Structure formats: C-alpha cells, structure tokens
Inverse folding.
C-alpha cells in the first residue's frame, strides 16, 4: 500500500501532471500562509508549520536535501514567529522598518552569503559526485532565493515591512527559474505568491506610514 505522504500517492491529475496529496497540501497551505501573513493574521504561523512539514517530506523524497534542511529552519522560525506574535498581540503591535544603515548592512550580508552559498552549491557535484551526480542548475540564482527567503522570514517574524519587498524579489526570481526549468506547476504557484506578496507589501507599508503620521 502506498503511504499517504508518498509522492506516488496521487490526489488528482492536471494536464497530465500527477499531484500527490503531500504536494497538494503543502502548496495550498503555503498559499494560505502567505495570504494570512499579508493580512497580518497570526494563523499564518500554524498554517505555515503544516506547509513546511509537507515540503520537508516532499523534498526528502525528491532528494532535494538543501531545500529539505531549509524547511527545518522555516519550522523553527515559524514557532518563534507564532510565539512572538501571540505575546505581542499583532492587532495592537505596530509594523516596524529597518534603518538605512541596517538596509545596507543586510544587503551586503545577503550578497556575501549568496556568493558563498552559490560557490558551495556549484561545487557539490565535484566534491561528492556519488551523491550529486549532476551539476546544480542556476546555483547562484537559487542561492539568492534561499538567502533572501531566510532573511525575509526573520523580518516577517519581527513584523518589519521590508520582508515583503524581499518576498517579492524571491517570488519573481523563483517564478522565472521554475518556468525556465519547465516545472510549470511550481511556477504558477510562485506567481500567485508574488501577487500575494505584493499585496502584503502595499498593506504593511501603508500601515507603517499611517503609524508614522500618527506618531507625529
């Protein structure tokens, strides 16, 4: 009997593409998670925990181990974000912003981490050919997506509006990569995430500006 969490346990087929239960649940909860975050709702965190748990299982079966370990990080920050928002009561907690110096520092850190990560990813097939048979596709671009995702998730947990700007960048790049690779199902998902992230950016930036005017 095929396990419910197996990628071979098909839920439905769309345009010849078999969608497993774990992929479907992970995708839907991911979309709901971002939608709730854009609406400043605390339920974004528990839904997000379901999302990353499904993707952990999915990436493990696909041998995408870097993405698999990234879900562990997302799970940890999801727990942190849930606790932080619960204690602060989001509906009464203001939206914060980075200082100019922090933005430059964060940008520099992201650039350095992207180069380092990209270099490592691009060399995996030569260092461990028995594990990584083929060279990584778009190693530096993929690394940029991963690095910005980590930073954006931290900023989201701390209710800093610039997190949405980073998510917009991540979703634009990821959408292009997935369509380029021919993984159109994921490409469509990330295009939807791009729209939601843009809505979140507008809403949170508006809230921050209103707070600033009120403070004056």
């Amino acid at each position: 009997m095929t396990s419910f969490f197996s990628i071979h346990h098909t839920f439905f087929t769309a345009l010849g593409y078999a969608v497993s239960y774990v992929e479907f649940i992970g995708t839907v909860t991911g979309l709901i998670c971002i939608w709730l975050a854009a609406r400043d709702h605390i339920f974004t965190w528990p839904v997000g925990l379901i999302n990353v748990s499904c993707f952990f299982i999915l990436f493990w079966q696909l041998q995408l181990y870097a993405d698999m370990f990234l879900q562990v990080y997302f799970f940890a920050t999801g727990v942190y974000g849930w606790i932080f928002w619960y204690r602060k009561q989001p509906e009464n907690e203001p939206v914060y912003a980075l200082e100019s110096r922090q933005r430059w520092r964060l940008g520099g850190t992201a650039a350095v981490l992207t180069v380092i990560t990209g270099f490592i990813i691009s060399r995996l097939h030569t260092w461990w050919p028995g594990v990584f048979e083929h060279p990584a596709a778009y190693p530096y671009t993929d690394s940029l997506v991963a690095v910005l995702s980590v930073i954006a998730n931290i900023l989201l947990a701390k209710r800093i509006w610039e997190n949405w700007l980073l998510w917009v960048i991540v979703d634009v790049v990821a959408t292009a990569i997935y369509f380029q690779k021919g993984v159109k199902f994921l490409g469509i998902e990330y295009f939807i995430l791009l729209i939601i992230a843009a809505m979140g950016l507008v809403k949170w930036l508006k809230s921050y500006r209103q707070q600033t005017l009120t403070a004056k």
